User: Fold this.
Amino acid sequence: MDQLGFARLQFGITTIYHFFFVPITIGLAFLLAIMETIYVRSGNEDYKRVIQFWGRLFLINFAVGVVTGLLQEFQFGMDWANYSRFVGDVFGAPLAVEALVAFFMESTFIGIWNFGWEQVSKRVHLLSIWLVALGTTLSGFWILTANSFMQEPVGYQMVHGTAQLKSFGALLTNPQLWVEFPHTILAAYLSASFFVLAVSAYQLLRHHYPEFFKFSFRLASIVALVSAVLVIFAGDIQASHLRTSQPMKLAAAEALWNTTSQHAPWSAFAIVDGHTQKDYAQLQIPDMLTMLAYKRLSGSIAGIHQIQAQYVQKYGPGNYIPPIAPVYYSFRLMILAGILMLAFSAYAVYLLKRSQFQDKRWFLKVLEWSLILPYLANTAGWIMTEVGRQPWVVYGLLSTARGVSSPQSVSMSDIILSLVVFAVVYGAMAVAAIYLFRRYIHWGLDPTQHEHELSNEEMFLGGTHA
Assistant:
């Protein structure tokens, strides 16, 4: 592990940790908005208690997500100063819009929503949660606008060795953005739906307020099923786009060492050895990769060795092959988690139609444990997307090795020390967040019954709870 390795490790760990909370925030804000719309239209005050329960969990998730997200942009100037200088002019616009418009919108209206139950009218209160949901979605849009430039650079010109923004419109019409954004947002809705499903199943198994949690269970089941289906279609479109935008990533995701004929099979599973460049015990589906890439039964897929030779001619000597095993297995882990979520949500909707979901205690127990699935899918998808782009930090323009800060400005010892500090701080935040989640879920709809216990926790956490 050299300086580059530790810098990548630090950014990878902190980003994955932050991404645990982002999809839940985006999706749960959307679900809360739907719940409150039903509450306002129906006038049923019982729904208000359910919304406030999910709102407390949303606020915990939102708070940890904000704190962990603040660190991400600071890291650009810490470990990745050369990268920041290279893309700063391009990244400045979308990140500024994200902070000044989207983040301020969600932060402002989340305050009105949280504290305004008795201070504003029901319609104004409903509008505030919809604006929170819009703000979280717009935050995702602008962040993905910046990330899409890293995947497929557009709208720039090179001036004195740095990328300068030439067309803001080109950033907004980047083909990568419009295959990445729908997939990410739909995955957020799916993630939050399974969060709600898992917690609702926990409450129903213990007969805690069953009439109330039937409501959230029904809503989450329907949204989960619709989102799961749409995520598969959006993911298929995004994977097809890789054939032209990042062919090496597509080849790495399939461990495809050599260019195929007109009929490329899809590797359902294999034991991949990136060092010997051999695959063992392959299970393949004939013609499936060609169908996924071309949407027809004929078409050649470029292999890793051939793309490497092309890149050497185009970019000069070097190794342009990403780590194969992490990309290959993370892609399949994401697919497996997605298929399981589709199956579970479809079965939940089926049981709802037959009014039998409370009788299937085994399935409710499965749903409790299914909470891990969206976290696995989101993390695996991020690893596949970012590791599969290596050795580029900006595809075709700036290598990851050139993007790291110089040893004179940030030494390896600085990176290791900060990595240890971040690990300790993030670990403490994880303990606090999990503790609060568990307590609020256990308390259910009436946390005021636990005021004495709540006071003791606030003292223990130093006010973090508030």
